[in-house]
Every structure is written in C-alpha cells, then in structure tokens.
Specification:
Layout lengths: L2 H18 L2 H12 L16 H8 L5 H11 L18 H12 L2
Helix pairs in contact: 2-5, 4-5
C-alpha cells in the first residue's frame, strides 16, 4: 500500500473516530475542566444536587434548557437548599448549553 493510501486511511479512521465518539465523553470532559464535578455528581448527593436529580426535576419542562443555562451562567441559590451556586459565565454559553443538555439526559 502506498504512503498516500496509508495516510488517507489513517486520516479517515481518525475522522470516523471523532464522528462516532459519544458526546458524553466531551460533556464529561467539559464538566471536569469547568469544575462542575467538584460540587455535583452524576448519581448521588455532593455539595449540589446530582445530575440525575436535576434531570428528574426538570423532566417534561420544555423551557428547562434555557432556564438551567441561565442558572449555570448567572449562579443562584434557593432551588436546592441554601448553598449558593456561583456564576459560571467564563465557561461559555455554548459549553454551558451542551452541559445542561447532557445533565438533562440522565
């Protein structure tokens, strides 16, 4: 096999891997890098509510993505107790929206 064919095959394999990689990996990576996992767990109470509890509370709420995106970006207190959630605007709106959708998928 020629070097050009090998290179093309390798490039195609990398592209297919990127396309077929489950979005959960990217979302979990963003959650870890953004500090979300310091206060939240997927299943089980931490400082803040678990992602499964958040998903259960907002299941069926058509406006949940917008509400929670604003809450993550701006911070808040009182929805899950007295512990405030600090604002996270530095994470970026697109990443916050992706994370909220991921949380709601649990």
């Amino acid at each position: 096999m020629s070097l050009l064919k090998k290179s093309s095959l390798a490039a195609a394999s990398i592209c297919m891997l990127a396309i077929t990689t489950p979005p959960v990996l990217a979302d979990m990576e963003i959650a870890n890098q953004s500090g979300c996992m310091a206060c939240h767990q997927i299943d089980g109470q931490a400082i803040g509510p678990s992602y499964k509890d958040v998903a259960a509370r907002y299941r069926g709420d058509a406006g949940a993505v917008d509400k929670l995106t604003a809450k993550v970006r701006d911070g808040g207190v009182g929805n899950w107790g007295d512990m405030p959630m600090p604002p996270n605007a530095w994470v970026g709106e697109d990443n916050i929206r992706m994370l909220v959708k991921w949380v709601l998928s649990h």
